[in-house]
Amino acid sequence: MRVGSYPGLGMRGGLAICGAAWVIVLSFVSLGVVVAQGLPKEKTGVSNVETAAVPLAPDFAMTHGRTLRMRKVTILPGGALPMHPHVDRPSVSYVLSGTLTEYVAGNDTPRTLDAGASNASFTHAHALLNRGTTPAVFIEVDLPEK
Question: How much is the pTM?
Fold first, then answer.
């Protein structure tokens, strides 16, 4: 891939990104707005499946010092996140690789989370254990307070 500046594109300069099968040219206008040319105008070849959701109460303080955060978390074999609540920071997670065992407060039956599984945490405390022989990796999106 080649990235370079091409002042001849007009206005205040530009940036060209050249890949094997496509070219994107971005022109920067004087107001700082980026105009993309040559990009598709409609969605094609895209699917969207909701895998986890956390319904928030109408009075949940979403904007008061919160950040929408995404983290990649790795739990090594034998590792654990102890029992912890999410009442102050709702989260959704998606397991990329490995296997986790999730224990939820108030539920006697643990849940196995293999690669491709998702979960949501808000109303009950939970713990995650890696009882496998390979690292377990998951993406977590949450709303912690700053």
Answer: 0.66
E-strand stretches of the chain: 2-5, 14-18, 23-28, 34-37, 69-75, 80-84, 91-97, 99-104, 111-114, 118-121, 126-129, 136-142
The two three-digit tokens of residue 4, written as one number = 């370079």
Report pLDDT digits (tens) over 99-128.
Answer: 999 999 999 999 999 999 999 888 888 999
Please state, in angstroms and rounded to a whole number, the distance separating the CA atoms of residues 8 and 97.
46
Domains assigned to the chain:
2-37 (no CATH), 69-142 (2.60.120.10)
The residue length of the chain stands at: 146
Side-chain-side CA neighbours of 101 within 13 Å: the count stands at 14
